[in-house]
Amino acid sequence: MGGRPKVVLAMAAALTPDLFGAEERARLAAVAEVLDAEPLARFDDERAARLLPQAEVLLTGWGSPRVDEALLGRAPRLRAIVHAAGTVKGHVDPACYARVRVSSAAAANAVPVAEFTVAAILLAGKRAFRLSRRYRELRGFRLWWNEVPPLGNYRKVVGVVGASRIGRLVIERLRAFELELLVHDPFLGSAEARELGAELAPLDDLLRRSDVVTLHAPSLPETRHLLDARRLALLRDGAVLVNTARGVLVDGEALLAELRSGRIDAVVESDVNILDVAACAVIVEAAGGRFTDLEGQPLTLASTSVLATNGRLHGPVLKAIHE
User: Fold this and answer.
1) Domain check: are 261 and 180 in the same one?
2) Residue 311 has pLDDT above 80, yes or no
């Protein structure tokens, strides 16, 4: 790409002012020609017909229309799709990979998610979430260890479901603590698991043995309700389920029943059905990174590369677009 590449934005317009502030827009404009400050919300209207033939870089974000081979036919000069968030599975057709370079912020975003997960695991082991709610209810001192399942993390067993980018970072960080680590991943061998610092275990065995189970599997048809009623019942009494991945990995109704029974605790993504369940802490899109989490992270160019983070463009992003 010679000179200043021509960039077209594609994302939900309502999110653009927050994700692309004045500073980021100015930095982008210094190295690239943004053909229209208003992002495309669809690829089949008159404005898209005018902009796409000129586009060399498609800068996408949440709410982007789907990019497929038909779109590439309408954008003959397109060389790269740069996604300012994590996964591109929802909006980039796999056929596009052979024709243009596709990049996302998944590698950068994995770091704050892993950090959040480790914090959640350690706090959950201390029953911090349940005790916080209990203290609000009682508003007085108690012998707190009598109010909840056993407290503490020393020599507890943590089961990591999915040796994904985030799952591996979680294992790496948990090795600093006196914990026994299990991992389940159908594509991971025993030797590689040992290199990570964990013991490879079948999923059902991992669920039976773990004090804390943390989910890091991808959202696929095969992983929908990976933890169903049968598998949730395998969790030992007092276990904690942490899910900073996708809610669809867990059968919500089955989880709700387990939480209402008080048999297990959970730290999961936002779900209004469990807001009033004492055994559950609800996270609201807090695990993923924002600009302040990721500005200092290096750019890695691989099959996917870190070019932007939730719409916030940092230095290496601009350099990569320019080149």
Assistant:
1) yes
2) no
